Amino acid sequence: DGGITQSPKYLFRKEGQNVTLSCEQNLNHDAMYWYRQDPGQGLRLIYYSQIVNDFQKGDIAEGYSVSREKKESFPLTVTSAQKNPTAFYLCASGTSGTYYNEQFFGPGTRLTVL
Amino acid sequence: GENVEQHPSTLSVQEGDSAVIKCTYSDSASNYFPWYKQELGKRPQLIIDIRSNVGEKKDQRIAVTLNKTAKHFSLHITETQPEDSAVYFCAAPLRVNNDMRFGAGTRLTVKP
Fold first, then answer.
1. Closest residue in B to A37 (Cα–Cα)
2. Which DSSP string corresponds to B61-86?
3. CB-based burial of residue A81 (10 Å sphere; 0-12 exposed, 13-18 middle, 19+ buried)?
4. Exposed, middle or buried: residue B10 (CB in 10 Å: 0-12, 13-18, 19+)?
5. How many CB atoms lie within 10 A of CB B97?
6. Residue B54, pLDDT score
7. CB B17 within 8 A of CB B4
């Protein structure tokens, strides 16, 4: 569990504001993922990255942006274009490709729009 | 489209009974099937996983079975305890995109 961290734990955003959620891992994983979880719902994929300097859109990428400049870091920006951003955001890392393995999740960031 | 479907969405059992949660997947190339447990307000954590070269795996009170022909896999919890109460998620990799897809989750309640 301690290998992947997210900050902050709670975040409040005003209308029209961009905010960035941090995700860092020291597990030497190539793949990193961002999921959104709404109350009573499953995990929906926002963006994922299999390797540094490369990332792909998931099912609900609109209104979000990411970067992967370092293997350890995969920050998510929630832009003002995301009309309903209030949710629990989970970052994960893992191996992928021909040999999948466990995804390790961070503790999450709860984002609330004021 | 490519998806992982999970049933039931809620499940309530008496302490000591068994619980079974089922998932189906659509990508026949999927080769890894994990199950995660998420307690309220916490992160999902892996409880058991299975690869496509085996049909069943067991770890104490938890087991997972895989039917590759039918493209479904199931989580079995025996002798349930109140601390098993949580939301359980299945997942399967989507090989064409190389990402992991999750089921919608099952809220398990174990009544003492």
1. B104
2. TEEEEEETTTTEEEEEE-S--GGG-E
3. exposed
4. exposed
5. 16
6. 84
7. no
Q: How many CB atoms lie under 10 A from the CB of residue A4?
A: 25
Q: Does A90 contact chain B (CB < 8 Å)?
A: yes
In the block, residue with structure tokens 């199931």:
B74
d(CA B8, CA B19): 11
The minimal CB distance from B44 to the residues A41, A97, A105 is found for A105
A48: nearest CB among B32, B43, B99: B99
Q: Is B60 helix (H, G, I), strand (E, B) or coil?
A: coil
| Residues in chain A closer than 8 A to B42 (CB atoms) | 107-108
Whole-Å CA distances, B37 to A47, B26, B112: 22, 22, 20
Cβ contacts (< 8 Å) between A34 and chain B: which residues?
A: none
Give A74-88 pLDDT, tens digit per residue.
999 999 888 889 999
**How confident is the model over A98-105, as a mean pLDDT?**
76
Give residue A21's identity as a one-letter amino acid code. L
